[in-house]
Design goal:
The protein has 569 residues and is an alpha/beta fold. Among the domains are: 9-262, 3-Layer(aba) Sandwich (Rossmann fold); 495-567, Arc Repressor Mutant, subunit A. It contains 18 helices and 14 strands. Strand 13 (554-557) and strand 14 (560-563) form a beta hairpin. The termini are far apart.
Length: 569
């Protein structure tokens, strides 16, 4: 009759530690326990840093399948690869499936193993569903006594491992810790186990770890029965102590019935070769995880960030709004100049046609029909854009705009002409605008009259030569003679009437922007908020603001714009 299994089932429902030096029988004890658990269809996972548990797949002779069929990740006999980036993905697989799993970390470097286990432990604590027996061999590698003061990722790994032990019971984990160096296993982890199996321990520090556990869990007087025998226990024999089950006994653990892959190979022998299991879906998933890990590697991301920061630093700073206004003004004037050039060409053509017609008329004056040629007047130039009645109370002169181009050469001096109460239309338009606004600058005058820069400057020079305006810096101010010459100028509307007057004259875009500012008055509106409310692009919005500022309808307000108080009663 077979001897009963030394470890009671109740002890396997709690955390358990198996301690013993190399060759004392602790790994055989764990493997034999795993055989029983897998045959009883219990969920099992082994963290195997020495690649010694793959023999569970084979019978004792190593030639036939054992029927247990655990899936092996990593190691020399792995069905699937295991890399530093697979910790979280593998933990989710283990925590949500029933297949027995062996995780061989032997091929990982110390740093890779540290990161893998950290990710694995943290994810398993979140993802596990139902009872799971988790065996962690050489547990002192994952929960080292000095891990908190170590460098690199060791503190995080220790914290993740201790959390797994201290919190895992509540989510179904039954953890089995194995270690050949009990003194190097962290106290917090060892202190959470409810059952201790101590095989042969030679070093005093390792035996002291067992003594501390006994003092924590049981009557210290019992240590006198256990401690002296630890250095001399035969292989396969150990003390099993389960204080909560009132068990303290020395037991001999039977050998595994599967292939003992942990036995050091003898000279001239070869380990059996395992056939890989095709799990394409899992393999594909791990490959995706590995690719994502490469793409998200901190060193790679830092290098990319540094490259982008360098490119950003090389780009010019955002343009100053004032400079943007100036750029719009320059572009506006350029467009006006091009249009004026086209108009001038059309006027010249029309003059040539008129002269030719007059010459023809003179040459054929005696003919019955007068020889009058047909003149095509469809090409006559359109009148300039002019707001002959600016609707604004007199304000102080607008601040001068910084010049970003070389100043245009002043027009030739014009001799003062006798005043007879009349002015040419261009001069009259400029003088009218100056009188009604009290003072204007050159850009405002261009916007109000529609004249291009050179034409505007010519009219200003003529008015100055006639003593009708004074020019001081950017301000063009009418003189008493100029005001007297034009007589009484139509009064400007005020308040709401002023607003309605401009709303009937402004282009659609400027009117929409002004309506937004009026709606929010007396508060200003940030430029970005204007974009959101109107749908304008930044450049369009800045152009409209510039035009409204030249008409004195809006004013700067911090980082935004506010409607002028002159538009309100």
């Amino acid at each position: 009759m077979a001897e009963p299994w030394p470890i009671p089932d109740a002890a396997l429902e709690n955390h358990l530690a198996i301690l013993g030096k190399t060759g004392s029988g602790k790994s055989n004890c764990a493997a034999a326990t795993l055989e029983r658990l897998i045959r009883n269809r219990r969920r099992v996972c082994v963290v195997d840093p020495m690649d010694r548990y793959w023999g569970l797949r084979l019978d004792a002779d190593g030639k036939k399948p054992s029927g247990l069929e655990p899936v092996i990740f990593g190691g020399a006999h792995g069905d699937l690869p295991l890399s530093v980036t697979h910790g979280a993905a593998v933990a989710e697989i283990v925590g949500t499936t029933t297949t027995p799993v062996i995780l061989s970390t032997r091929m990982l470097t110390v740093g890779e193993r540290t990161r893998f286990f950290t990710d694995f432990a943290e994810t398993l604590l979140r993802k596990n569903e139902g009872p799971l027996h988790l065996v962690i061999d050489e547990a002192h590698l994952f929960m080292p006594q000095q891990g908190a003061s170590a460098s690199g990722g060791a503190p995080a790994m220790l914290h993740a491992g201790n959390n797994l032990v201290s919190l895992g019971r509540g989510i179904g984990l039954r953890i089995m810790l194995l270690s050949q160096r009990a003194a190097k296993l962290h106290n917090d982890a060892l202190g959470q186990v409810a059952t201790l199996i101590a095989f042969r321990l030679m070093l005093p520090h390792d035996r002291e770890a067992v003594r501390r556990w006994i003092n924590e869990w049981a009557d210290p007087a019992l240590a006198a029965k256990v401690m002296p025998s630890l250095p001399s226990l035969p292989t396969g024999t150990g003390w099993l102590w389960a204080p909560e089950l009132d068990i303290l006994k020395q037991a001999t653990f039977p050998l595994v019935t599967t292939y003992d892959s942990g036995v050091p190979p003898k000279a001239g022998t070869h380990a059996p070769t395992l056939n890989p299991i095709d799990l394409a879906a899992v393999r594909g998933r791990l490959e995706v995880v590995a690719k994502e890990a490469v793409e998200n590697d901190p060193r790679r991301l830092k290098a990319r960030i540094a490259e982008l920061e360098k490119q950003l630093a090389a780009k010019p700073a955002p343009a100053d709004p004032v400079l943007l206004d100036q750029e719009w003004s320059d572009g506006y004037h350029q467009g006006r100049a091009e249009q004026a050039a086209e108009d001038a060409e059309r006027i010249a053509t029309l003059k040539r046609e008129i002269r030719a017609a007059i010459g023809h008329l003179i040459a054929h004056i005696d003919e019955p029909d007068g020889g009058v040629p047909v003149v095509d007047v469809r090409h006559a130039p359109a009148p300039p854009i002019l707001d002959a009645t600016p609707v604004r109370r007199r304000l102080a002169a607008a601040p001068a705009r910084p010049e970003t181009r070389a100043a245009a050469a002043p027009p030739p001096a014009i001799a003062a002409a006798p005043l007879n109460g009349k002015l040419p239309p261009g001069e009259q338009s400029c003088l009218t605008a100056a009188i009604q606004f009290g003072a204007v600058n050159r850009d405002q005058l261009t916007l109000l009259t529609g004249y291009k820069r050179s034409t505007r400057n010519t009219y200003i020079a003529r008015l100055q030569a006639k003593g009708l305006v004074t020019v001081a810096g950017a301000a063009i101010t009418p003189t008493p003679n100029g005001i007297a010459l034009l007589g009484e100028v139509a009064p400007l509307p005020t308040g709401g009437a002023l607003l309605e007057h401009w709303r009937g004259r402004l282009p659609d875009g400027e009117r929409r922007l002004l309506d937004v500012l009026v709606e929010h008055w007396p508060n200003g509106v940030p430029r970005e908020e204007i974009d959101a409310l109107t749908g304008f692009k930044r450049s369009t919005r800045n152009t409209y603001i510039s035009r409204l500022r030249l008409r004195m309808l809006v004013e700067p307000a911090g980082e935004g714009v506010v409607a002028s108080e002159m538009l309100f009663d």
